Every structure is written in C-alpha cells, then in structure tokens.
C-alpha cells in the first residue's frame, strides 16, 4: 500500500522538524496548494464504493471514470494531466504575437516557430539530418560499403565527438546530486552507463510479454 511505503520512508529518513516547519504545518490547511490538492483528491474518490471491499475503486474510481486513457498513452495520471495543460499553455505563448521583454522567451518563440515551419522543413527535407549523421564519419548504410575504411575508423574519436555534440555519456556517467543522508551536502556520483543499460534493458529483452 502506498501509505505504508510513505510511512516507512518518512520513518527511515527521520526528517528534522524546525519551529518554522511546525508553524507551517499548523496553517497548511489555509494554503492555496492544500485547497487545490484536497479538491483533486475529493474529485478522484468514488464515495459509492466500499473501501473495505475495493479500496482502489474507492480511492481512484471517479478519476478513472472521468479521465479515460487516450489511445496514444499507456496511463493517464495527474502528472500527465498537468503536463498536457503546461504544453497547451506553452503552445499558446509561443504562437501568440506578443513580444516579450525577456530575450530568452523571444529566442524560445523563434526556435518553436522554426521547428513548426512546415514549408521550410519540406524544402530542406532530410538534408540537415543526413549532414549531421555524416558528421560522425562514413556510414555504409548511407554511403555504401565501398567508402568504408576500417583502418581510418577511430572509435575513441567517435565517442568523444558523440559526447561533445550530443552530450551522451559514454561508459561512465558523472553527476552531482544531494546526499540523502545529509541534504546540505552534494555528492559527485559515478555510474557505469553500459552496465546500467544492460541490467535495465538488455537482461529484460525477450522476457514474457515483450513484443
């Protein structure tokens, strides 16, 4: 049950509650966020269901009934719903005629309009994509086997180029994240990308139910 998992995590984390946090907790039911969250939770509940018989239907039944999963999605959650609303708002902003005082916003609008310019995209075609692929060297699928030269192929140089251009981690991924035991600190984490990929994907490939 989700509430049991949450309770265990809270107990294990042993959060530090300050006097300010205690004051915030006392007044939390008066905040806008609390009121919005309570409305969303109430709207998801199916009060006609008996929680002792079917707790899932009781807690989520109305949400499922009023939010059918779209044909192009495998699930539809509150996060999905919020994402759609954010995307719609972003599209509204990007397609508006308004000129913003922010240089970054105007640059984003220009980039969006370039990406959505179907006339220009059809004129250019796949040239930009093919040029990008050829920028990594000769690919027999595009250029034919006769142009492939095994002796001039440099895997190290290619991997460096992939990282510099595409920011794709090769072999080892370095990242910075909060220390779960002391959130005032930051940790430099190192992870073997290939092993991680193998465990998460390759070992499960072909399992029962996979297409």
Automatic annotation (TrEMBL):
Residues 51-189 form the Peptidase M13 N-terminal domain. GO terms for cellular component: plasma membrane. Gene3D superfamilies: Collagenase (Catalytic Domain) (3.40.390.10), Neutral endopeptidase , domain2 (1.10.1380.10). InterPro entries: MetalloPept_cat_dom_sf, Peptidase_M13, Peptidase_M13_dom_2, Peptidase_M13_N. GO terms for molecular function: metalloendopeptidase activity. It comes from the Eukaryota. One of its GO terms (biological process) is protein processing. Belongs to the peptidase M13 family. PANTHER family: NEPRILYSIN-LIKE 4 (PTHR11733:SF237), ZINC METALLOPROTEASE FAMILY M13 NEPRILYSIN-RELATED (PTHR11733). This is Peptidase M13 N-terminal domain-containing protein. It comes from Ancylostoma ceylanicum. The gene is Acey_s0265.g649.
């Amino acid at each position: 049950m989700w509430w049991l998992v949450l309770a265990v995590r809270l107990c294990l984390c042993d959060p530090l509650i300050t006097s300010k946090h205690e004051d915030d907790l006392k007044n939390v039911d008066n905040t806008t966020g609390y009121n919005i969250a309570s409305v969303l939770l109430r709207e998801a509940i199916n009060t006609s269901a008996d929680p002792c018989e079917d707790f899932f239907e009781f807690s989520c039944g109305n949400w499922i009934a009023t939010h059918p999963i779209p044909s192009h999605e495998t699930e539809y959650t509150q996060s999905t719903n919020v994402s759609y609303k954010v995307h719609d708002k972003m599209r509204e902003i990007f397609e508006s005629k308004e000129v913003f005082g922010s240089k970054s916003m105007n640059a984003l609008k220009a980039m969006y309009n370039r990406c959505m310019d179907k006339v220009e995209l059809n004129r250019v075609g796949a040239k930009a994509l093919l040029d990008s692929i050829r920028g990594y060297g000769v690919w027999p699928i595009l250029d034919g086997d006769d142009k492939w030269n095994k002796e001039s192929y440099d895997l190290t140089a290619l991997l460096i180029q992939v990282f510099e251009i595409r920011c794709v981690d090769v072999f080892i991924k370095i990242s910075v994240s909060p220390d779960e035991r002391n959130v005032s600190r930051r940790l430099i984490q190192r992870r073997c990308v290939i092993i991680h990929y193998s465990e998460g994907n390759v070992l499960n490939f072909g399992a029962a139910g996979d297409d």
